[in-house]
Write a structure and sequence with these properties.
It is a single chain. The protein is mainly α. It has 2 domains: about 55 residues, no CATH class; about 35 residues, no CATH class. It is built from 8 helices and no strands.
């Protein structure tokens, strides 16, 4: 997984007159990442005084809008239909329950039938 750039830290250290190389060596942030933060801050018109009170996530979102937003590649179950009924196994009453549970890794028909209370292995 890719780590997010510590944009707020970069802006803070740059405000303290540290060079790009000093920030790189002290905190292990690449020069390219530091330059990307500084370019994005200049483009957005933001400086340390503007972001000092914001959280790291808010600063990152302000400098890089849309980056890091991900959608799931998996189909989401209809939870309203899944969670109807009461007690264990009640979710198995809706028509698509097999598709949702059988799609899990390592599930075959025999293992699944044992889970559902069918024949034992």
């Amino acid at each position: 997984m890719v780590r997010k750039i510590k944009a707020k830290l970069v802006l803070q250290l740059r405000n303290q007159s540290l060079s790009r190389r000093a920030i790189e060596s002290a905190h292990g942030i690449s020069r390219h990442s530091i330059q990307a933060v500084l370019d994005a801050a200049e483009l957005a018109g933001l400086g340390w005084d503007d972001v000092a009170e914001l959280s790291e996530a808010e600063v990152y979102a302000a400098l890089f809008p849309g980056r890091g937003v991900r959608e799931s590649v998996f189909a989401q179950p209809e939870l309203a239909r899944v969670h109807t009924g009461a007690g264990p196994g009640a979710h198995r009453s809706w028509p698509g329950w097999w598709d949702v549970e059988a799609a899990a890794p390592g599930v075959c028909r025999r293992v699944f039938s044992c889970r559902a209370g069918g024949d034992e292995l």
